[in-house]
Amino acid sequence: MPLPLALPAQRRDLDSPAGRLSLYCARPEGAGSGLPPLLLVHSVNAAGSAAEVAPLFAHYRQHRAVYALDLPGFGCSERTDRPYTVRLMTDALQWALAVIQAESGGVAADVVALSLSCEFAARASCETPQLIRRLAMVSPTGFSRKKRRYGPAGSVVGPPWLLRLLRWPRWSEGVYRTLTRPAVIRYFLARTWGSDAIDEALWRYDLLTTRQPGARFAPLYFVSAQMFSADINTLFEALTAPVWVSMATRGDFTDYQGRHTVAGRANWQFHAVEGGALPYFEDLPGFTRRLDPFWA
Description:
The protein has 296 residues and is an alpha/beta fold. Helix content is 33%, strand content 17%. Strands 1-2-4-3-5-6-7-8 form an 8-stranded mixed sheet, sandwiched between helices. The longest helix has 18 residues, at 86-103.
């Protein structure tokens, strides 16, 4: 079945060094708030797509130009068999931001990134600070557990042998099919929510996006930890843009004991937001009341 739009908005393809990228866009009908454009970036998992930011997209399109990106290997973006690396994801994000900046009179955009995509956004901000004005992280990776990641620049967490094992032709398709069975997707969403009261529309879209041609390639790089940066805490500490962090209080993503490395810095602020890792699905007004002052 062809993949429907994840968001009720204009969607277009961008030809980029990271391949064909899918970008959604909407603008307010009136004058708007005067704020710069906002880019929303979904998380990375077996079923990632722009559908994960649907409530935020609906909220912000009333006030400002808002964009949502399908990362390489996900949603309507290119899903060919190629290396899905940290570099590829960061390049895609930077390309989309450069396009948005060109369409917005040269101003830097604000960014909301989810989970692992926060690492790509942090790298993009360090490398091209002129593209990102402010960065909001929702349930970011890189702060859990006691050990911090200060590895060599550009290195990743996962061992190469694990990727080779998962990509072995005899079982790579079977591994992905197991990860994306309807009950398994529901199970992982429940762990994300910290509750069985998941968003049913997101679950249904996850079923569709995981059954598209080439859907298995990028998630296997995620499962083998090839997309987790071994130098992420170095990048976090190098950020100069203002950063707002939403910390979940339920589910699998409640460990932020490593935030002490940046929590005392003037450009970082952390907020324990009641709910799971995607709290705006549960209480959009409550979430945006916490986040909106950050954009001012």
